Amino acid sequence: MALKDILVHVDDGRAGAARLDAAIALAAAHGAHLTGLYVRHNPSLPSYIQTQIPQSILAAQMRHIEDAAATARQAFEAKARLAGLNAAWRSELGQTLPVLALHGRYADLVIVGQRDETGGEASGDPAAMPEQLILSVGRPVLVLPYAGAIRTLGERVLVAWDAGRLATRAVNDALPLLAKARKVVVMAINPRIGEDSGHGEIPSADICLHLARHGIRAEAQHYYADDIGPGAMLLSRAADEGIDLIVCGAYGHARWRELVLGSVTRHLLAHMTVPVLMSH
Predict the structure, then answer these.
(1) Residue 58's pLDDT is what?
(2) CB 51: neighbour CB atoms within 10 A?
């Protein structure tokens, strides 16, 4: 599958400009159409509160929302034009999660930002972002970290491999990115070896063979560690390998186990140091 239709979430957060720049660079590299989606958050207030607020204040608030959307559109269109992209702008009134999920289903890839717990995210973004979007959109979601500069994206890729269904889907979704990468490492953390494990005699070897048939040269690695969680191990190895993109399946266990045991997904989304592509 070629990467030809990309949707990027545009907002007023402090990481929004870097996210847009990364999306434009990715679209240019793949010759893809880029859609910028800005969600205008109509403040949801109980009716008994709305009746106590003067109409002039409510009108001024809406003008501020519309002005912010217009400013974001100008920046998007100027950058897309400078890059020579085929691009489109969309602005919707509503809540971030359902609007992004709806529009994202008509794209090959959705690009969003990591939730900024330090207070730098755009107002109106729900606490469920981006986790619930990954679970609901039905498309691969590329999550960009809010901290640090994104100098390269997809040149050196780490694939988190557990031989499961979701990891398999993530690899398939990432094929256009893997095909352009200079280096691909497929890594299994604490793999079980056995007939029902899915790993074969050499963990990660079979999926590397599959990638080779797509013309993608990948290196198979596996590690065992009892003193560090799989998510932390992936980020540690990513730093050691100079990785600029991690590919993984999202929420591979039953949700009650995620709540009790924690998860690789949750760890990566909370502590990511490089962009992460997740599929569910």
Answers:
(1) 67
(2) 8
Tell me the whole-structure pTM to 2 decimals: 0.90
pLDDT of 148 strictly over 60: yes
The structure tokens listed for 47 are: 């009716």
Choose among 159, 154, 160, 112: nearest CA to 134. Answer: 112
Q: What pLDDT is attached to residue 191?
A: 85
pLDDT score at 119: 65
Give the whole-angstrom CA distance, residue 69 versus residue 37: 10
Q: Which of 41-50, 62-71, 244-253 has the lowest mean pLDDT?
A: 41-50
> Beta strand 141-144 with 276-279: parallel, antiparallel or unpaired?
antiparallel
Backbone angles phi, psi at 181, to 5 degrees: -75, 145
Asked if pLDDT for residue 259 goes beyond 60, the answer is no
Report in angstroms the alpha-carbon separations of 32 from 23, 29, 70, 131, 239: 10, 8, 24, 25, 29
What tokens were used for 10? 């545009």
E strand residue ranges, the chain: 5-10, 33-40, 87-93, 109-113, 141-144, 156-160, 183-189, 219-223, 245-249, 276-279
CB atoms within 10 A of CB 172: 14
Question: Domains of the chain, with CATH numbers?
Answer: 5-144 (3.40.50.620), 156-279 (3.40.50.620)
For the stretch 181-199, pLDDT in tens is 999 999 999 887 766 667 7
**Environment class of residue 243 by beta-carbon count within 10 Å: exposed (0-12), middle (13-18) or buried (19+)?**
buried
What count of other Cβ atoms lies within 10 Å of the Cβ of residue 159? 27
Side-chain half-sphere CA neighbours of 235 within 13 A: 18
Q: How far apart are CA 10 and CA 15, in angstroms?
A: 10
